[in-house]
Amino acid sequence: MKQYKKVLLATATALFMSAPAFAETLRIGTEGAYPPFNLVDSSGEVVGFDLDIANALCAKMEVDCEVVTSDWDGIIPALNNKFDFLVASMSITDERKQAVDFTNPYYTNKLQFVAPKSADFKVDEASLKGKTIGAQRATIAGQWLEDNMADVVDIRLYDTQENAYLDMNSGRIDGVLADNFVQYEWLQSDAGANFEFKGEPVFDNDQIGIAVRKGDPLRERLNTALQAIIDDGSYENINAKYFPFSIY
Q1: What is the C-alpha separation between 50 and 98, in angstroms, rounded?
Q2: N or C: which end of the chain has fewer CB within 10 A?
Q3: Is the pLDDT of residue 5 over 80?
């Protein structure tokens, strides 16, 4: 009997030592309303470029991950209690760095105007004078308009990018300023068929990062995983799924 107990104890110890002490689960925060980067599909699943990148990072870190959505306006405060890292096409800014830490950029964007194809829409101040321009609230596009065009155009800020497009489609605003790659996606859709880019990008170094809580060592783990998916080609494969050009 003593020998039998010893065998059971040895087996149990071996099983315990060969398996992880616990399975780490991290929560990915995102908006779910910013296609093609993050959106909720017809089945209710959150999908998009951001989520593909986040899931690839989780695989490299060998952790389980689950997705949590949040309205854009409150997404940084929600990082403190609703999720562990934020992958939502968030621009790295000095103001946001006061509240969160960012990883290295996982892509770089530009800001560009979109307006109806039929519109005589030039992007110099004299031509924009008196026009009504939309942007999503609490974004670098909205901030750029407020910093550079507050005394030139009537600025309308929206809770989602989609609502800005809806107002432009209905003629309530003259144009929209937003990230180039989001605009690119929308212009390929039926809703964007009668619209086009206007002028050159007004800002071309919008670096996008993953946000974590201040001082969280998860930042370095994510940076290591990001470099790994770049090196092994996973990033390039995800990029090609959404864009016919590199956005890194």
Answers
A1: 23
A2: N
A3: no
138-150: average pLDDT: 96
Q: Tell me how far apart the alpha carbons of residues 146 and 154 are, in angstroms, rounded to a whole number.
A: 10
pLDDT by residue (tens digit) across 93-134?
999 999 999 999 999 999 999 999 999 999 999 999 999 999
Rounded to the nearest integer, the mean pLDDT of the chain is: 92
Percent of the chain exceeding pLDDT 70 equals 91
- Token pair 């209710």 is found at 44
CA distances from 95 to 34, 98, 100, 180, 206 (A): 22, 6, 9, 22, 14
Q: Which domains does the chain have, with CATH numbers?
A: 25-108+208-242 (3.40.190.10), 109-205 (3.40.190.10)
pLDDT higher for 14 or 28?
28
Q: Where are the alpha helices (DSSP H) in 79-169?
A: 94-97, 125-128, 140-148, 161-169
Tell me, rounded to whole angstroms, the distance of Cα 53 from its chain centroid: 10
Strand 132-136 to 175-179 pairing: parallel
Rounded to the nearest 10°, the torsion over CA 153, 157, 160, 162 is: -30
Element housing 67 (H / E)? strand 64-69
